[in-house]
Amino acid sequence: MTGTQMVHVPYKGSALAVTDLMGGQVQIMFDNAPTSLPFVKSGKLTALAVTGTQRMSALPNVPTMEEAGLPGFVTGSWFGLFAPAGTPREIVAKVSDAVMAAMRRPEFREQLVNAGAEHGPKPAAEFQSFALAEKVRWEKVVKAAGVSVNE
């Protein structure tokens, strides 16, 4: 997108990568808000931009990638609750209803927003459609970039 050349440094999780970023062993990283947000708020890390379509409420002064000059650079992270294939629909519905109820509680929503989560929960069927669409989206990106399993 910009022609920038970087060396990918694989880490087993964000915690070690954030530690190396703060220690100067790496110069930049893309990370999920829940891991980096406390360090940004404490001044130990500087957030350059966010990859969503709008600014984060937890970091209102940090521009989106588009605002920073990279139109079309939009992505995001998400968390999902999965069950084994073949789990009875009534069990999926019961768990989905319980999760939706918990996530609608104001104190829980506040904790999510403070951790950098911007969007609310999705019912099981809607989440399944979303996850499948994400799979298709990223398959296209990987194919267009010519990335192979060995890279």
From TrEMBL:
Record organism: Cupriavidus basilensis OR16
Protein name, per record: ABC transporter substrate-binding protein
A Pfam family that the UniProt record links to this protein: TctC
Source species, domain of life: Bacteria
InterPro entries reported for this sequence: BUG, Bug_dom1
Residue spans crossing the bilayer: none
Record CDD domains: PBP2_Bug_TTT
Family indicated by similarity: Belongs to the UPF0065 (bug) family.
